[in-house]
Write a structure and sequence with these properties.
Length: about 450
């Protein structure tokens, strides 16, 4: 099959590369000429484990190409994925201008039947808008060309996106015709040979499934953070509570780890968009509004604990921060709690030196030189009044505590992800503070 993928961001690049990996001919298109030129040289715009290898292998084989010309990408293609950004507007709603612009241009360029697939996370009803843009463009051309619009939301976890695409829990496809279903069935056949299910449904249900899934996961995170905060007040240990409830198969043990709030490109944006969709339809999503409120407050928790420990005397204090990205195995800094924590400390007159395995360049683009950047984890500690663990990268899990203690001015650790044992660190002479534990 020949496939076009419009957009070479996180979703588009992973989608195009993985489809090429199973033998399809894929052309990825983007309006950003510099990004396309870099991709043609093997320079990726994002960090994702394993992706660089797949891109290199498939560009070398000729199965994966990059261009700025949409007409070139869709020439002879059976399907075209729309995988451009849907940034939140000021009111929280998803901005569809880029999605609809692509739909319009596809309508201006197609010569034969094609299935246009929305891969971007979009509100319910977007497929209808895409269909109208396509049809209007065809009408202006005086062309009568059949097409279908389908919804195929992505469920990719940053840091594990390749495995998620190649070995999916499920593939959700919203279609309106047997012809579109046939195209998507053939497209995903390589991924269903090992039993991974394709769930066909109507288009609005597919669009809603994506939002509902992310909203549920965000809800679990905020729920556990709320419980963690209450545990502290009651003298309970949230890590023990987590194990206790996680053993119940009706609840499960995933996404119930307390911390300093969720971030990234999906959860914050999608929760806001779903809340906004409810408002537009006269329905208040009260639980999700609380999920968002809890998350915003949780990003302040670590800074509050730091202020309490130092009795609000942070001016002149210096802090070492381990981890910047919103989660491990990604350089994504969107809505990262580290940004909020840094701002809080800087406003209080403190300074920060941070280390992150891959996200420091991205942080510099967003945050500039407001903080310092270290060459490695231990360099960040020099002369710091405390260590702040913000992102639970593997390399931070078992540090040399003697070395940490010698580098710090004071043996103080604030563990924003509960990856360390407070009891063990206190035995080593550290002052330890986690989230919701003793």
């Amino acid at each position: 099959m020949k496939i076009a993928v419009v957009g070479t961001g996180y979703v588009g690049l992973v989608t195009g590369s993985c489809l090429a990996e199973v033998g399809m001919t894929v052309t990825c298109v983007d309006v950003n000429a510099e990004k396309i030129a870099n991709l043609q040289k093997g320079i990726l715009p994002i960090y994702e484990p394993g992706l660089e290898t797949i891109v290199e292998r498939n560009t070398t084989s000729g199965r994966l190409k990059f261009t700025t010309k949409l007409a070139e990408a869709i020439e002879g293609a059976e399907a075209a994925f729309i995988a451009v950004g849907t940034p939140p507007g000021e009111d929280g709603s998803a901005d569809l201008r880029y999605v609809l612009a692509v739909a319009r241009e596809i309508g201006e360029q197609i010569k034969d039947y094609i299935v246009v697939i929305t891969k971007s996370t979009v509100p319910v009803g977007t497929a209808e808008k895409v269909k109208k843009e396509l049809q209007n463009a065809l009408t202006k051309r005086g062309a009568k060309i059949a097409f279908d619009v389908a919804s195929n939301p992505e469920f990719l976890k940053e840091g594990a996106a390749i495995d998620d695409f190649m070995k999916p829990d499920r593939i959700v496809c919203g279609v309106e015709s047997d012809r579109a279903r046939d195209v998507l069935s053939r497209l995903y056949k390589p991924f269903t040979l090992n039993g991974h299910p394709v769930l066909f449904m109507d288009v609005p249900s597919a669009e809603m499934t994506k939002y509902a899934a992310n909203a549920m996961l965000a809800t679990k995170i905020s729920f556990m953070n709320d419980i963690a905060n209450l545990c502290e007040l009651l003298g309970a240990d949230v890590d023990q509570v987590r194990k206790g409830i996680g053993s119940d198969p009706r609840i499960g043990n995933r996404f119930i780890y307390p911390g300093i709030g969720y971030g990234g490109s999906c959860f914050p944006k999608d929760v806001k968009a779903l809340v906004r969709t409810g408002q537009e339809n006269g329905y208040v999503l009260r639980i999700l509004q609380s999920v968002e409120d809890v998350n915003e407050d949780q990003k302040l928790v670590l800074a509050t604990k730091i202020r309490n420990h130092f009795k609000n005397e942070l001016k002149g204090k210096h802090f070492a921060m381990w981890g910047l990205s919103f989660k491990p195995e990604t350089n994504d800094m969107r809505e990262a709690p580290s940004l909020v924590i840094c701002e809080q400390l800087l406003e209080a007159g403190a300074t920060v030196t941070a280390y992150d395995p891959v996200a420091m360049d991205e942080t510099k683009h967003m945050f500039g030189d407001k903080i310092g950047y270290a060459k490695d984890a231990y360099s960040a500690l020099q002369g710091a009044d405390a260590l702040l663990l913000v992102t639970e990268w593997r390399e931070f899990r078992v540090p040399d505590w003697d070395r940490v203690k010698k580098a710090l001015k004071q043996p103080v650790v604030f563990d924003g992800r509960n990856i360390y044992s407070g009891a063990e660190l206190r035995k080593l002479g550290f002052a330890y503070t986690g989230i919701g534990n003793k």
